[in-house]
Amino acid sequence: MAEKTCPVRTTLIYLSDLIDSGSLTDPKIRRICEQILHLTEEISEGAAGNDHLLAIDSLIREYLDMKKSKETLETGNILKKIFTDNREIFQSHIETRNCPSHDCGKLAPSPCQMACPAGIDIPTYLSLIARGEDDKAIEVIRRDNPFPWVCGLICTRPCEMMCVRARIDTPVSIKFLKAFAAERAMSEGTYKNPKKKGWNGKKVCVIGAGPGGLTAAYYLALMGYGVKVIEALPVSGGMIMAGIPRYRLPREVIDREVAMIEDLGVEIAYNTLFGRDITYEELKNEGFDAFFIAIGAHKALDLGIKGEKIFPKVLEAIGFLKDVALGNHHAPGKQVVVIGGGNVAIDAARTSLRLGAKKVTIAYRRSKNQMPADIEEVEQAMEEGIEFSFLTIPREIIGKEDKITGLDCIRAELIQKEGSDRLIPVPILGKDFIIEADVVISAIGQYVDDKGMEAFSQVNWTRRGTIEVNHASMETGMTGVFAAGDAVSGPATVIEAIGGGKRAAEAIDRYLSHIPQPRMPKIPVRHHMEPSVEMTATRKMTLKHPAMPMLNVDRRRTTFQQVELGYDEESVRKEAGRCLRCDICRRCGKCIEVCRDKMGIDALQFGYMDFDHPTGTDFRVTEKKCITCGACAANCENKAMVLEEKDGRRNLKLCGTLLNSQAIQYCENCGAFLPSAEYHDFITRKTGNRVKRTETRLLCNDCLRLLSAKTNVETRPAGLK
Amino acid sequence: MQFQKGNKIKVFRKSEDESWEPYMDDFIGLHGFVTDPDTSINDPDALIEVSLEGKGTHRLPQDCLEQIH
Fold first, then answer.
1. What topology is assigned to B8-67 in CATH?
2. pTM of the model
3. ipTM of the complex
4. A162, A298, A303: which to substitute to probe chain B, counting the most B Cβ within 10 Å?
5. How far apart are the C-alpha atoms of A268 and A229, rounded to whole Å?
6. pLDDT of A2 above 60
């Protein structure tokens, strides 16, 4: 191992290489090494608890006690020596949550990966997509998320919000690239499950076949657990099937990815409501060792206005969307008013329109800018002819007999409350009006339906009506019972549920393997560094975000066909190439400082590297000023900036982007390598070493000295031409 | 404080909310972005999703966050 690098980091590299090499053929030894790796990762991240080193000691003892072959015994002894010799450093990482040499920080992933609640290694899979290796990209994504195709179509994409490329022009279209890769891999038959481990004799019961539940089921099945999923609906997918309309997410996409999970041996019991169709005791008697609750948040909040409970045509958005998803394609009415401003409200409105409603209005208390719905969804709804009534507070649903005639509303203004900068919608007296309607759909939020959960008597509930867990391990107050997804967070995002499901699967494995749980939720880790895509600075700067081809508006208003049609292959490869590879370049800015302040050249116009105050960026500027001195590359700790000599040229590259290329020169006298003409000129100007001979001949320093000496002596030095 | 998607924030103090867990003490002083505000009812009491520099993405109570510019 390298002497100057942090032993925690070198241990991580050693264990990763060992596992990746495929040399650990014994499943038990492989399992122990993987567990030691996970615990070491948490020590490196500052997420380890006091029991971590003790657990590693115990695993090493278990390893050595197995008395396997000489080679494996040697590995065990190496591990023992690492953790004995560097005990204090490991302990210090745990206690201070800091790496004194900052080597552990070098594994820090890109902002997009950090932003992803599932921690997907985005730069790696974008590089693979740019090179056309879609199957490998899917393999990388599925390490952290078993639903790349689903998320490629409906993710809220926090990654794109953090994308550093947005500081130059627009964020990389990460979401759609993922969808393309998944579709292509599925189409070509290269979308495959990883090899699962043999059954370890233990069984886990998952309650809820939504994104959280199925994610946990997937990772548990891969780890060798027997998994049974209990699902109340006749279909899989939970909220992604029942809550997201088909024009955003076709059913086939969900079915194909769920089928991949079922292929691992996961059993899904449909039409089985926990507590009604099957009880906790019955499941315990079936021999389940752990339970995972992922029941979602499917119960709608009441509007709390007059008339809500009188008319049958007052619908809950979530129930309405579920009915449509399960096949009820009758128009809810002719004039529909949807109350709310989130994505569910937009989905209910656009679905009503597709079912034949003549007029659909969304009534929202605040202004457009404050709508929690995705801006793309709002814009698409507007294109389709959905009307928006902003600053509208509903007061009463009015009608005759059991038929709705309208929604009585009052106009609001946004007022800042004293002592707060929060804008509150306040009714304006006398500004009341009626929106004509025969259907009112409520979409103001959901909560967790705890019916049937009484069986988990020691599970605690928060004042928000969600299941209380330790977020590091997703453990509830009841031993052996874990929970994640909307049931824990309240209504949240699909990718958050997936992240929670993965975290819970790891925690269940630890619980059943008697490995200590982490102190805090796992920070995403970059395990691998894919080579950068090579391109010129001009290409990197001029590649533009492609426009998404859309279904025509008439068809959007009348059918449930997918609205966003996806990019073509050429656009996908180009778009993936726009990635700046922030997993390699950490934007520390040392290269800029050295070039500008130490060398006085200022050839690096990388304004995007300033997180707080980004300024202009143009990679093409470098070529005009750079002298290929290599000071930037020499000071780049992560080797993001490299100076390479190839085919007679000296090339400066930042994560694959060719910033400058200058011809290598040779000494006219001895043939030795010389810096570029620009560098040579720069040095001679700086040092004042501009003698007559350097102006006429290209010489290395040694030859220049020898020739200069000639002017002082009469005799020509021996060996010089 | 009303947070919106994309707001730059700082965890400026420990929250008094029951959802605050001991490991979250590590987050105090960190900067980040709001990635998913309260999605439906603009509830000041709701937990919101933030991506914190170097620590990943978490759902936190709003009383520990302040917007920075």
1. SH3 type barrels. (2.30.30)
2. 0.87
3. 0.93
4. A162
5. 5
6. no
